[in-house]
Specification:
With 113 residues, the protein is an alpha/beta fold. Helices cover 45% and strands 33% of the residues. It has a five-stranded mixed sheet, with helices on both faces. Helix 1 packs parallel to helix 2.
Length: 113
């Protein structure tokens, strides 16, 4: 698992790669929470390179999304592969966090936020 952070037009993008399971979910949570705690209110988490996500990984993302929302911000997910998208949809994430097909859609939406 690897996490990279970058910026586009005042929007923070986080690229996660690899498996996001119970063995790394704590690291994911710590890194996402650290990013949000630094004052980020517009966050895109790109899941393009995530091969698998467990319930522990989902929880890490949900905690970050709630933190962003508590600061009147918005977090979006983008580009999950079919397996990860299925997991997100079956767990109800699509009702809680917007999931976009492309990173550019997420960025455009947050520019307008």
């Amino acid at each position: 698992m690897n996490i990279l952070q970058r910026q586009i037009d005042g929007i923070t993008l986080v690229d996660i790669s690899g498996r996001v399971d119970s063995s790394v979910s704590g690291q994911v949570m710590d890194q996402l929470n650290g990013i949000v705690s630094s004052g980020v209110t517009k966050l895109v988490v790109n899941l393009k390179q995530v091969s698998y996500i467990s319930s522990a990984g989902l929880r890490s993302i949900l905690v970050a999304a709630k933190l962003v929302k508590s600061d009147n911000g918005e977090m979006r997910l983008c580009q999950p592969n079919d397996l990860v998208r299925k997991t997100l949809e079956e767990s109800g994430f699509s009702n809680l966090i917007r999931i976009d097909e492309h990173e550019s859609q997420s960025v455009a939406a947050l520019r307008a936020f």
